[in-house]
Amino acid sequence: MVRRRITGGLAVLVVLIGVLVTLSLRIQVARPNPIVGAAPIGNPRWGIAVDSRLGRAFILDDGVREQQVTVSNGGWSSSSSSSYAFGAGTPSNKVHVIDTRTGRLVKTLDVPQTVQSLTVDEVTNRIFAFDQGQVDVLDARSGASLGVAPFSGNPDDVNDYAAVSLVDTRSGQLFATTSQSTNEPVDQHLLLLDGRTGKTLRNLTFPHGSAATSTGPNGTTPTYYASLSLALDERAGRLYVFNTNGQMRSVDTKSGRLLGARRLPAALWGAQVDERTGRVFAFAVRQTHSSRGWQRPLVTLVILDPRTGTTQRIMSTYGEPAFDEAANRLFILDGARRVVSIRDGTSGRLVRAVPLGAISIRLLLDAPHHRALVTAVKGYNPATLDARVAVLDTRTGALLRTLPLPAGQLGYGIYAMAVDTGSGHLVTTYDTMSSGTPDRYSWIPRWLRARLPWVPPPPPPLGPNQRIITHTALTLDPS
Predict the structure, then answer these.
(1) CA trace torsion 307, 308, 309, 314 (10° rounding)
(2) Which of 62, 145, 338, 418 is most buried, by CB atoms within 10 Å?
(3) Terminus-to-terminus CA distance in the chain, angstroms?
(4) To 10 degrees, the CA torsion angle through 141, 145, 137, 61?
(5) CA–CA separation, 353 and 366 (whole Å)
(6) Which of 153-162, 191-200, 295-304, 328-337 is the least confident region?
(7) What is the DSSP string of 78-97?
(8) Which pLDDT belongs to residue 308?
(9) How far apart are CA 314 and CA 279, in angstroms?
(10) Given a cut of 60, is residue 283 above it in pLDDT?
(11) How far apart are CA 393 and CA 479, in angstroms?
């Protein structure tokens, strides 16, 4: 009798252990939902700024929640025919503040319609909203305005806008460049701004960029692209400024004083600095002409020694490089072969090529969590587009996992992305196309709705080729 009870107890124990092991395996296999949160926004502008210390992401958009577009048979949208926003007369720019830990929308700030870009200083917790002719300084915690400072490379031209901006966390200063596209040679400007007030401390002038020609009804017309590319070496206190004529100039980050200039074999852009060695990774762009006279750029990734001006060719590629200083690895998108090339940061030697099986779009590094995040897409039709984020281990190059993305309309969504290195969460945006706009007030009778001024009118009817695009800010946990 006792033996039977012991045997029965052992059998029950074995069954329980088996159940627990099975559940444990299922829990390990079934990963949690990577989507942390989603928040509706308007039509986003380029880029997302993140303050990892506060755990906040800042997204600039034009304030239009629903955008009406005309689509072709393939599902692609042509130029917007009109914009429609519930309860909005004249759309104005918005800055949406997203909690990167929860993905929730914390608040929405109003900024001038002409604001072009945002930069965040994690040391002073300031948001710099670059406007045409001024920079608006906001408190990253509360969103309160801290002042407005004049901003213009050319005081006589209000069309100047900030194209590139970098924060020097050691000196507490901000560097910004203005950009124009004109038919006449214009100077290029580098502005040194105070990191607390946004006041312009120095305005450095550079010669105009090279001209590209285009042929139209009135003959050949030159177009000058007045833009500069910047690379910051905080450890050495140097800012490297590259123009489209193939020149490099060094600037002292504290004083803003020009230290020297070098002529390079080719114009460089998309530069990043290895602060341990002082070397610069950048793209060399050479313009060539095809048999039909079109200009086609040849893009080559190079290693530059700023002290001597010598360059070492690595590979022909497309997409900005990302350098992990701790791992001494260079991560490069190779869209032609649909792989991520991982190269040694010293020699440029290929260490590993990680196949993605999709067209890579954007790559970000999260160095504290040893992760490289790559957005990639399969297909070309927005209706069947497969978009996802590939997560790589920066130490081994191993592909850890892929996270599906709601692709929707292929547009700004898979380009705008930023990582919070504190939580490790990724913030991106995506677009969704629908054949109509939901009417939240359809339950109100028409005769009553017409007498309620605070209730918006019904959405306008859509034609057979018209669609409504809405936009969402998505926060993902890549772990």
Answers:
(1) -100
(2) 418
(3) 53
(4) 80
(5) 19
(6) 153-162
(7) -S--EEE-TT-SS---EEEE
(8) 85
(9) 14
(10) yes
(11) 11
Rg of the chain over Cα atoms, rounded to whole angstroms, equals 26
Residue ranges of alpha helices (H) inside 38-197 are none
Q: How far is CA 440 from CA 82, 149, 201, in A?
A: 21, 42, 51
Report phi then psi at 5, rounded to 5.
-65, -40
Give pLDDT tens digits for 392-447.
999 998 999 988 877 554 444 456 789 999 999 999 888 777 776 677 788 888 88
Six token digits for residue 451: 């007498």
Residue 162: CB atoms within 10 Å: 26
Structure tokens at 159: 């069309």
Our CA dihedral for 235, 348, 376, 467, rounded to 10 degrees, sits at: 70
Q: How far is CA 188 from CA 163, 227, 475, in A?
A: 11, 6, 37
For residue 130, how many C-alpha atoms fall within 13 Å in the half-sphere facing its CB?
Answer: 29
- DSSP class of residue 154 equals S
For residues 147 and 196, give the distance between their C-alpha atoms in angstroms, rounded to a whole number.
Answer: 10
Residue 25, C-beta contacts closer than 8 angstroms, at least 6 positions apart: none
Q: Which residues of 408-442 are buried (b: 16+ CB within 10 A; e: fewer)?
A: bbbbbbbebbbbbbbbbbbbbbbbbbeeebeeeee
Pairwise CA distance, residues 215 & 289, whole Å: 14
Tokens 């990734």, residue?
301
**AA identity, residue 373:** L
The 3-state DSSP class for residue 292 equals coil
Residue 87 one-letter amino acid: G
Please give the average per-residue pLDDT across 18-44, as a whole number: 64
pLDDT for 8: 56
Per-residue tokens: 25: 């395996």
With a cut of 50, say whether residue 84 has pLDDT above it: no
Q: What pLDDT does residue 179 have? A: 64
**Distance from C-alpha of 329 to C-alpha of 313, rounded to nearest angstrom:** 16
Q: Which residue has the higher pLDDT, 30 or 345?
A: 345
Phi, psi angle pair for 315, to nearest 5°? -165, 160
- Alpha carbon 58 to its chain centroid, in Å, reads 11
CA dist list (Å): 336 to 165, 286, 319, 355, 414? 30, 19, 11, 11, 18
